[in-house]
Amino acid sequence: MESSGSPGTETAVEEEFAALDVESPLVGIVMGSKSDMPVMEKAGKELEERGIRYEIRVMSAHRDPETVADYAKNAKMRGLRVIIAGAGLAAALPGVVAAHTDLPVIGVPLTSSTSIAGGLDALLAIAQMPPGVPVACVGVDNARNAAVLAARIIG
């Protein structure tokens, strides 16, 4: 009998996990504030209509950066294939998520009652990522298009 640390046993365990029919979400939808939920729920609705499993979470890149980093780092291992990240104002969330995962990240710039630029600030923040930290960007408040793009990425 092989010891529990042998490569053969690890491969057998991996094969068993792969054979399990687990209904894990394929798309993660994250947003910086609960007030973003009405817009971001439109992405969930579109995914639901297409039969694509998703999860939705609220996490702030500024107020809780460790949570965001952990979420992004573990997303692929949990079965996610794409992350949709909505953010307004400085809109750091999509870029921070992209910095911690190699999964495709789709940014949704959001309008805000405190924005002086009507969502343009968020649009520019998401669209102007530095080299090596790619984030796809859809139109302002267009979470539905983010879901359509996620569906196309998944195939």
Secondary-structure blueprint:
Elements: H1 7-19, E1 27-31, H2 37-49, E2 54-58, H3 65-75, E3 82-88, H4 93-99, E4 105-110, H5 120-127, E5 136-137, H6 143-154
Parallel strand pairs: 1-2, 1-3, 3-4, 4-5
What does the model show?
The protein has 155 residues and is an alpha/beta fold. The chain contains 6 helices and 5 strands; from the N terminus they run H-E-H-E-H-E-H-E-H-E-H. The chain has a 5-stranded parallel beta sheet, with helices on both faces. Strand 1 (27-31), helix 2 and strand 2 form a beta-alpha-beta unit. Helix 2 (37-49) packs parallel to helix 6 (143-154) and helix 3 packs across helix 4 (93-99). The longest helix has 13 residues, at 7-19. It starts with 6 loop residues before the first helix and ends with a helix. The model has no long low-confidence stretch (mean pLDDT 91).
Placed side by side, the strands forming the largest sheet appear as 2-1-3-4-5
Which structural class do the helices and strands define? alpha/beta
Number of extended strands: 5
**H/E element sequence:** HEHEHEHEHEH
Beta content: 15-25%
Q: Point out poorly predicted stretches.
A: none
Helix amount: 40-55%
Calculate the mean pLDDT score and round it: 91
Supply the number of helical segments. Answer: 6
Cα(first) to Cα(last) distance is 42 Å
**Molecular shape:** globular
Q: What Rg do the Cα atoms give?
A: 17 Å
- Describe the largest sheet: 5 strands, parallel
